[in-house]
Amino acid sequence: MLYAEDLHPGLRFPYAEFHLSEQDIIEFARTWDPLPSHVDPEAARQGEFGGIIASASHTFAVCVRLTSDAMMAQVAVIAGKGIDGVRLHKPVRPGDTLSGHAEIVERRPRSQGRAEVTFTCSMTDQSQEPVLTMTGTILVRGCQASASGP
Amino acid sequence: MLYAEDLHPGLRFPYAEFHLSEQDIIEFARTWDPLPSHVDPEAARQGEFGGIIASASHTFAVCVRLTSDAMMAQVAVIAGKGIDGVRLHKPVRPGDTLSGHAEIVERRPRSQGRAEVTFTCSMTDQSQEPVLTMTGTILVRGCQASASGP
Asked: Which of A36, A149, B44, B123 could disulfide-pair with B132, CB 3.0 to 4.6 Å?
């Protein structure tokens, strides 16, 4: 487990790979963002992008999942505080494979040994082109506080 | 359909209601953010919040879905550009019912009659307390461009 003391700026967490099929994109969007450009292949073909693209919410969820596995699962997170500067650099299309990394950029000490930790998420596609970037802030437990209770 | 010309600052889109059960929270998190605080009721009971809380990604997805239905479904959106200032004001718990509104805050004209439109999303719980706020930016088609093709 990584505590506040361990999260030095520059520490990097490489993502696994996440593949998205057309069916994945349509199924997610039917529940979470049922617009024609995400759920209707024929309408999408005649639209701005010439085919189905993933909902921004889906692209975001993939980035959070990759970050959850690569970083959060081994960090003593108390809570997420916020997310800034979510930028959708290019649309995600069926067949894309997403990867990238998270990186610690700042650590601000708080009471009880805790720290507020800011990190960037950089998600790329199979051409190594940026797809989504964002900055997250979490509250993290210190190693001492953890030993003595929640 | 609402085009760039129609999206005046101050225009408000009230959300429907969205209810979340413990099962909903666990199922979403199993796929998208499988941390103990979201998927393991026993571990969560002993954690910071005394029980399961929704993944930030789930809370975000609900806000996008409410915005999609209330606003995006009737706006001539070309693409999402980005999201800023996502703030998680309080954790979402099983049994919460989320609602709120989106509101246009700025419209910046672009070429071909298009506009970049910035809007805020304000999601509250059943106590009318803020749960998530954020600001989105979309590129929207003008009504003339729309009449003459994609």
From this structure: B123
